Amino acid sequence: MQQKKPKLLKRSIESLMFSSKWLLTPFYLGLIIALGFYTIYFFFELKHLIHVSMGLFSAEEHGASEVSNAILLGVLELVDITMIANLIKMIITGSYHSFVSKQHGEDSEKVSSGLLKVKMATSLVGVSSIHLLKSFINASNMSMDDLTKQLIIHGSFLVGALMLAWIDYLHVKSEKIEHEIEKENGEVTH
């Protein structure tokens, strides 16, 4: 009887620990709601782009370069919104499947937590690239300090993404080597 109590206590604590993963679900539901608002924002920006484009095409005082830049900046804003929406979706599905539900259905994404971090970092590099491109197009209206700060931020994201990718590569490689050693020793039970 004395032995059963510690095992029961241990199982109860482990059950509580593993069940706590479901506390993450409200965060993902909140991100789904945020994604819905971001979708609405996308359509407002699309409407704004159409309105600005029609006004620029109909006005004779605007040069072709000004029209082109205004449309390009509007399109880049839509791309930026889309990339952030993809990042939110990736965080929702990837994190949910990595940390909450270990079951993978046919429509689920099989993403390790390391790969998820690399994907998020590269998405941030992409978003940063769009912001940087918009700044370069609009460089005449920006100070050199602001452009330099954006370049430093972009470089930081890029270095961070490369470091995460390298760490994930090393992790996967070490797991593969470990698996091969276990296989050679006949320790694999899969």
Largest sheet: none
Residues in helix, %: over 70%
Distance between the termini: 34 Å
* Alpha-beta classification: mainly alpha
Helical segment count:
5
Q: How many domains in all?
A: 2
Tertiary shape: elongated
Radius of gyration: 24 Å
Fraction of residues in β-strands: under 5%
What is the succession of H and E elements? HHHHH
- Low-pLDDT stretches are none
Mean pLDDT: 84
Task: Give the strand tally.
Answer: 0
Annotation keywords:
mainly alpha; single chain; 5 helices; 81% helix; elongated; 190 residues
Describe the structure.
The chain has 190 residues and is mainly alpha-helical. It has two domains: 107 residues; 79 residues. The protein is 81% helix and 0% strand. The chain has five helices and no strands. Helix 3 runs antiparallel to helix 4 and helix 4 packs antiparallel against helix 5. The protein is elongated and about 90 Å long. The two termini are 34 Å apart. The model has no long low-confidence stretch (mean pLDDT 84).
Secondary-structure blueprint:
Elements (H helix, E strand, L loop, with lengths): L3 H16 L5 H34 L5 H37 L12 H25 L6 H41 L6
Helix pairs in contact: 2-3, 3-4, 4-5
